[in-house]
Amino acid sequence: MFKAKKIMFLYTDTSVHPGAGDSAGIVDLPIQREVHTELPVIQASELKGALREYFETHLEKNTFQIKQVFGTPEDADDKGSGGAIGMTMARILLFPIASIKGVFAWVTCPMCLDSLKRDLMAFSQDTTIKDSGLDTIPGIKDPTVALIPSGTNDLLVSNNIFLSEFPFTHQTNKNLNTIAKWLSERLPSNYLYFKEKLYHQNKDRIHSNLVLINDNMFRELLKIRTEVVHRNVIDKETGTSANLWTEENLPGDTLMYSMIYAAAPYKQSDEIKSADDVAGFFEKQNLASFILGGNQTVGRGWMSTTFF
Known about the structure:
Number of domains: 2
Order of helices and strands: EEHHEEEHHEEEHHEEEHEEEHHEE
Strand content: 25-35%
Distance between the termini: 21 Å
Shape: globular
Helix content: 10-25%
Radius of gyration: 21 Å
Structural class: alpha+beta
Number of strands: 16
Number of helices: 9
Oligomer: single chain
C-alpha cells in the first residue's frame, strides 16, 4: 500500500502539551508516554489531526488536495475516499536538560538513536546510515558516565558534566561528532544559533552540547525533568482559588521525529498524482510550523518541522 516514505523532524519552539487524557500520578494532566519505555511521545492520531487542522486553516478549507492526503471525513457530503498518508507516533530524540555550563545540554541515549537508525533503514540507503554516524552507536552501561563528542569542552566543569543537579563523569567518543553534526542539520534552518550549539567546528575547536547517557538514566531524567506548571482559576467574586491543577509539558527545544508513509491517492489531481507527491505534500506547501496540543491561548504548542 505505502510506496513512499519521509521522516518528519519536529522541533518544539515552545512548550507543548500532548495530553494523555488521564492521570495516575501527582500531575493532574500528564503528557503522552510510551507504555513500555515511559518516554514522551505524541500519538500519530493527534499529530495527524493537528496537521490537517493546519492545512484546513492555511489552505482553502476542504480543498481537494487536503482530501487526497488526509481522506474525506465521514460526515462530509462527498465521503468515500480514505487518506493516502500514514504516520507513526512522534518519538523523542533530543531532550534539553539544564547544565551548569553551556546553559543546557541536548541529551539522548543509545535506545533513542537505535530507534532512529531502525527507521532510517526503511529507506534502504546504507550511505544515509553511514553519513549519520548511526552505523556505530556507542553503548553505555554505567549510569554515572556521559559521552560527549571528541574535542569539545562546552559542558565540562572540573572534568565533569552536571545535568540539572546530577553529576556525570565524561568520556569522549569520536563517532558522536558525526551524529551531532547530522542531527544539527535536521534542525530548522532559521535556528542557526541552536544548530551551531548542537554542532559547530571552528578551525580546530569543536563546539557541541550533545550528551549521550545510559538508557535507564535517560528514562529517569525524562520522568522528572519535563516541564510541570501550576494553573489556577480565580473566583471573580471572592478572589480566591476556584480550581488549582498541574499540567505537564514537553519543554521547548525538544527534538522528535515521525515516519511518514504515503500511498497513491484514491483520486488523482494535477498536483497530486503519485505516492511521492503525497509524501512531499507537507514540504511543497511550505509547512514550517504548526500548533499541536492544548493551551494554545497561553502560547504553547508551537512546533517547527524539517524533512528528510
